[in-house]
Specification:
Blueprint lengths: L9 H12 L2 H7 L8 H21 L15 H7 L10 H9 L1 H6 L4 H12 L2 E6 L28 H7 L20 H5 L28 E7 L2 E8 L2 E2 L6 E3 L38 H11 L21 E4 L11 E4 L4 E4 L6 E9 L24 E4 L6 H7 L4 E6 L4 E2 L14 E6 L5 E4 L7 E4 L8 E6 L1 E4 L3 E4 L1 E8 L2 E2 L28 E3 L2 E8 L2 E2 L2 E3 L4 E8 L2 E3 L17 H10 L3 H8 L3 H9 L10 H12 L16 H7 L7 H15 L1 H4 L4 E2 L4 E5 L2 E3 L2 E3 L1 E5 L2 E2 L3 E3 L5 E4 L2 E3 L6 E3 L2 E3 L29 E2 L25 H15 L5 E7 L18
Helix pairs in contact: 1-3, 4-5, 5-7, 7-19, 12-13, 14-15
Length: about 850
């Protein structure tokens, strides 16, 4: 009755029994062959399947009487018996908890403890409830409890201060009296202003409570919801900081990322044992003042600014550093930590260290130490033979890959960094069925040495059965991933192919931001050079996906994934920019199939013309430099555009406006315009893109694509297309419940919203930060139009009312609505809930994070 196939044999048993009751004459006449079932036998098989369902239902009658063990379809019936206001938008987990705790909820209706547990049960997020009337600044009156000297007495021999803290008459950290003036002397207490742990008092805010405004009022109750997931990394190899001995970055790719706290509340912390959550117990970024306060508390003689909680600790539950191979962490006194940028330093001691830490993301996608299994999806068996290796060595993975042959599995058992790869398969020994994955609930990290070549997978040659390849739980940084030969199925599950990090305002002259060791954080690209029937991305974060040398992906499917393509060059100089598919460019010049290409071919020098004449389609170019030199001269010359040359070349509206503007651009703007014209005319070869293919169908389901795309066919649902997307065959396919950008050429659109390219709708676009690709609460202000009637929304615009994009499956907007419905039942009359999502972005849309460490 659950809808999931059950291998109990009941269906076969009843099918055989019913078939045996049919007279032999009818059985013989039902089919002309003894192997193929006839229509009568098939009919009886379907009847038997229904009988098997009834049998299972009868077997489960006892279990279906309990909400803990019943099937999902039974939950509404039990809820009806209790007259519970069951919220239809809640998932099965939330509905089951709602029914199971109904009596408990009703007995404690209206209390802060019940409201906090209700928020956690309905949404699944860590929550803290704050009565905002307690944060109002006001003049004290005669009915208020007296606040005397104990609030200022540091020794507090009578325990009066503890009593004032317990009664909410004084701040836990700052000792600010209720309704009184703020005491700013405690750094941690001051930095918690405007959070769920604010100890100061504010004037009345009469605005409607939404997000970060309208909090403080007599009738308002704040529900602070921590929607991020704090992912634990138990063993990782830190990256040494260039020029700073004994300084390291926690992140194994060399990024400076904020460290997170481990969520410390369990189900047993509610009920009779409930206490409000403390700042150090929540899945939030670790701030410098909080770390300093807790480190001071852990010292032999805590100072006056230590965190006033004897159980408070982040070491080693949230963060740890230990000598390589050691079981116990170093003493905290040996480690100096900067949590906001993910950096630490150790005293002179172990030469090699390992780290454990937590990092934040809105969902469990990409390579991470979490359970990768999905309910209802059977696990794919590992092809034999199976090899298991450990990280930390440059030779373990190459040796294991070299020993694979055509069939086998390599499992990486820990999260220590591997620094080298090896080709898998070859022309003589192609891949038949290969799996390379991390162990269960582990993350395999591969960060190749600078200058290392791509990681090449070679499938079957023509005339042989195509190959199968699966990569799971892998983080690849520093190398591209190349697919050659013929593949029937290539699957990347829960993988991170490093999307790179572009240069920022502090380093305007760099294309890529450097890591702490000075290496550029450039993206890793998935190159398709062979023929792949099906390429599937499931819960992945990747850099660009492109074809070259005649490569083909007949069906490229991405679900619950992020694909990012960043700008790869500064300025209009073509000779210093990458050419993504030289074969496409040179083949076009060789065949001269349109006016622009014919004109460009006529401008080539003899040396470049000789290279073009000698080129063979779908092959690497022997010497591209003469062609690039000639194209650079065209870029540096007069305006490239004429109506005849670009008659069949679609251009962006901004580019069309620039070419017909008066007066014509000159100098550097003209060179930049010519460079853009070439890129838009030959996008597969010269344009930056997240996905670039000239054939096949691309299907995006609950994805976020950061960057432009050039596709042949497109099927798109619950997806954010952040930049211009050009589809050659716009008569086929559909874009539904998605975000698309101006200037895109797309198939028909349904219930979708239009935004300008690159709109500020995300908390962060920088991989590694907790808000990466997460839609912020004010994203709907960027919408300029909708494809159909109604009010479009990015935050609630998916088919089920969740947000569009990669985090659609988490249903955050649905959980918010479900919580508001339940609060209407359990919140005291006259009070207004205010939902606050945490962590929060700064005013500029960037994450609250420490500034990167200065250059050394």
């Amino acid at each position: 009755m659950t809808g999931t196939p059950v291998a109990d044999g009941y269906a076969d048993l009843y099918a055989d029994k019913l078939w045996s009751l049919v007279p032999a004459a009818h059985r013989a006449a039902d089919s002309t062959t003894g192997e193929t079932p006839g229509p009568l036998q098939e009919l009886l098989r379907r009847v038997a399947a229904q009988v098997a369902d009834i049998h299972r239902s009868l077997d489960r009658l006892w279990e279906d009487q309990s909400i803990e063990t019943c099937d999902s379809w039974v939950i509404p019936y039990i809820a009806q018996l209790l007259a519970t206001n069951l919220v239809a938008s809640m998932d099965a987990r939330g509905q089951r908890l709602d029914v199971a705790n109904t009596i408990y909820y009703r007995r404690r209706k209206g209390t802060v403890a019940l409201l906090e547990q209700l928020a956690a049960d309905v949404t699944g997020f860590d929550a803290r409830v704050v009565e905002f009337f307690r944060s109002l600044g006001r003049t004290r009156h005669g009915l208020d409890p007296e606040i005397g000297r104990p609030a200022d007495d540091t020794t507090d021999p009578t325990g009066a201060r503890q009593l004032q803290h317990a009664e909410g008459l004084a701040g836990l950290l700052t000792h600010t009296p209720s309704g009184g003036l703020a005491d700013l002397r405690n750094p941690l207490g001051a930095t918690l202003t405007g959070t769920a742990f604010d100890e100061f008092h504010h004037r009345l805010d009469a605005r409607r409570g939404v997000g970060a405004r309208g909090w403080y009022g007599i009738s308002k109750v704040g529900f602070f919801l921590w929607r991020t997931v704090s992912l634990q990394v138990d063993r990782a190899t830190p990256v040494p900081v260039a020029g700073c001995p004994n300084h390291y970055s926690f992140d194994p790719t060399g990024r400076q990322i904020p460290l997170f706290q481990a969520a410390a509340r369990s189900a047993g912390d509610y009920g009779e044992h409930w206490l409000p959550q403390a700042a150090w117990q929540l899945p939030a970024p670790i701030t410098g003042p909080l770390w300093d306060a807790l480190a001071d508390e852990a010292a032999p003689a805590p100072g006056p600014l230590a965190y006033p909680d004897p159980h408070a600790s982040l070491w080693p539950a949230s963060v740890s550093v230990r000598a390589a191979g050691a079981a116990d962490p170093l003493d905290l006194s040996q480690v100096l930590l900067w949590p906001e940028v993910g950096r630490f330093a150790v005293a002179a001691g172990p030469a090699d260290v390992e780290v454990g830490y937590h990092h934040g993301l809105f969902s469990r996608i990409g390579a991470g130490p979490y359970d990768r299994r999905q309910l209802g999806t059977p696990a794919r068996p590992d092809p034999a033979p199976v090899q298991q290796i450990v990280g930390g060595s440059a030779t373990t993975l190459p040796a294991a890959l070299a020993a694979l042959g055509g069939t086998g599995t390599v499992i990486v058992a820990d999260g220590l960094t591997l620094s080298a790869t090896a080709p898998v398969g070859s022309a003589s020994t192609p891949i038949v069925d290969v799996t390379v994955r991390a162990a269960d609930q582990r993350r395999a990290v591969i960060r190749t040495a600078a200058g290392a070549g791509p990681w090449i997978f070679t499938g079957a040659p023509a005339g042989t059965p195509p190959a199968r390849l699966r990569l799971e739980g892998m983080l690849l940084s520093g190398s591209d991933l190349v697919l050659r030969g013929r593949f029937d199925d290539v699957t990347l599950s829960c993988c991170t192919i490093d999307p790179g990090t572009g240069g920022n305002l502090r380093r305007p002259a760099t294309v890529w931001e450097p890591g702490v060791d000075g290496r550029e954080l450039s993206p890793s690209t998935i190159w398709i050079e062979g023929a792949v029937r099906s390429l599937t991305l499931d819960r992945c974060i990747t850099g660009p996906i492109r074809t070259r040398y005649g490569g083909l992906a007949s069906q490229l499917t991405a679900q619950n994934s992020i694909v990012q393509g960043l700008p790869t060059a500064l300025g209009p100089d073509l000779v210093n920019a990458p050419v993504f598919d030289a074969d496409t460019l040179v083949s076009a010049l060789h065949h001269r199939g349109d006016p622009l290409t014919d004109w460009l071919a006529g401008q080539l020098s003899p040396a470049a013309a000789a290279v073009v004449a000698a080129h063979v389609d779908a092959a690497p170019v022997a010497d591209l430099q003469p062609i690039l030199n000639d194209l650079q001269k065209i870029i540096d010359g007069p305006l490239l555009w004429t109506a005849d040359r670009f008659a069949d070349r679609p251009l962006r509206a901004s580019t069309q406006t620039a070419v017909i503007s008066t007066p014509t651009p000159t100098g550097e703007p003209l060179r930049a315009l010519n460079r853009e014209l070439l890129a838009e005319a030959y996008p597969l070869a010269l344009a930056d893109a997240a996905i670039a293919t000239d054939a096949g169908t691309v299907t995006l389901d609950r994805c976020t694509m950061l960057g432009a795309a050039y596709l042949h066919r497109l099927q798109c649902s619950e997806t954010i297309l952040d930049d211009v997307v050009r589809v050659n065959n716009a008569q086929d396919g559909c874009v539904r419940f998605s975000v698309w950008t101006t200037d895109s050429a797309l198939p028909r659109r349904y219930e979708s919203a239009q935004v300008p390219a690159g709109s500020p709708i995300f908390v962060s676009r920088r991989y590694g930060e907790w808000g990466y690709a997460q839609v912020h609460d004010g994203a709907d202000t960027a919408i300029v139009s909708a494809s159909t009637g109604g009010v479009p929304s990015i935050v609630t615009g998916s088919h089920d009312g969740s947000e569009m994009g990669v985090y659609c499956r988490d249903g955050a907007a649905i959980k918010d609505r479900s919580l508001l419905i339940k609060l209407g039942e359990y919140l005291p009359v006259g009070l207004t809930p205010v939902l606050v999502h945490l962590p929060t972005p700064d005013n500029d849309g960037e994450t609250r994070r420490g500034r990167p460490w200065p250059a050394t």
